[in-house]
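Good day; I would like, with your permission, to put a structural problem before you. The record follows directly beneath this note:
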Amino acid sequence: MTREEVLQVADMCKLSLSEEEINIFMGMFTGVMEQVKELDELDTENVEPLYFLNIKDKPYREDVVEESLDREEVLKNAPEEEYGYFKVKKVME
């Protein structure tokens, strides 16, 4: 992973990284990507797709309507707000 890619991810996560941290993350991300590339070498031809990690029945809780939080209280620490909702940066094209 390049320095620019690390900085792009840090910017999306609103993180400020020192030069040392950038170098550390470059190494970490590169290691992760190498491990992911190893998965391409696996023979998965006869492997059934897995849609759920846990196939046991899940106990459902009853859906109970409760009092909502006050909108002003929720938005008071938001960096930006528009039309009464959180305004977030576009992260996907």
Notes: Residues 79 and 85 are 11 Å apart (CA to CA).
